[in-house]
Amino acid sequence: MFNTTAWNRIRYGLYAPVYDLVAERAFRGARRTALGQVTWQPGMRVLLVGAGTGLDLPWLPRDVELHATDLSPAMVSRLGQRAEALGRDVQAGVMDAERLDYPDDHFDVVVMHLILAVMPAPARGLTEARRVLKPEGQLCVMDKFQADDRPAGLARRGLNAFTSAIATDITRQARPLLEAAGFVIEQDTPVMMGSLFRALLARRAKGE
Ligand SMILES: C[S@@+](CC[C@H](N)C(=O)[O-])C[C@H]1O[C@@H](n2cnc3c(N)ncnc32)[C@H](O)[C@@H]1O
What we know:
The structure is a single chain. The protein is of the alpha/beta class. The protein has a single domain (5-204), classed as Rossmann fold, CATH 3.40.50.150. It has six helices and seven strands. It has a seven-stranded mixed sheet, with helices on both faces. Helix 3 (73-86) links the parallel strand 2 (65-70) and strand 3. It is globular and about 45 Å long. The structure holds S-adenosylmethionine. S-adenosylmethionine is lined by residues 5, 8, 12, 23, 50-52, 55, 70-72, 75, 96-98, 113-115, 118-119. One of its GO terms (molecular function) is S-adenosylmethionine-dependent methyltransferase activity. It holds the Pfam family Methyltransf_11.
């Protein structure tokens, strides 16, 4: 399988100049639904993981403290430009979602939009998200997933060899992934292409 972090850094650097053309309008509604599932309060500390060019920024409340990370310097640079254009104060940096440079129990909300299906090891990204979330923190996920009640069939797994190298994995299952990482799903809403794309709101499982 040709899906590695090193390759993702290269390819998203190449995609950065055209990313908005593909993803801005297409995911606008899905983003708004996903972020609308979060219970927002003024002053919350929020982390966007794999934030890309910052297409979530226009839909986030203005009275929160924003941090954004991405593997690709080109993406982070574009996010900085978007933040400036929107008049948003965002602390943005290059960081691997598998190794977040933040303390434990630090964020009220972690947003992972369109990254769990891209990372080679989404479980590691979720473990890190859980670590940096406060015990009552909220995880906001929007991505494409295989149905939870049946694994991907042969044809889909075959196609995945191609899509995961140039775009995204299409075989991952949200519920098993999130639950194994110690999350409890509170909301799960289909947002695009039937139930291929879903918006999930999860919290840390108690006692884990
Ligand atoms: C499909 S884009 C989604 C960007 C943004 N979240 C959005 O909703 O438009 C995937 C992003 O994840 C980033 N990414 C991939 N692997 C990553 C990793 N291991 N750590 C951090 N970012 C990563 C890519 O650089 C890219 O910007």
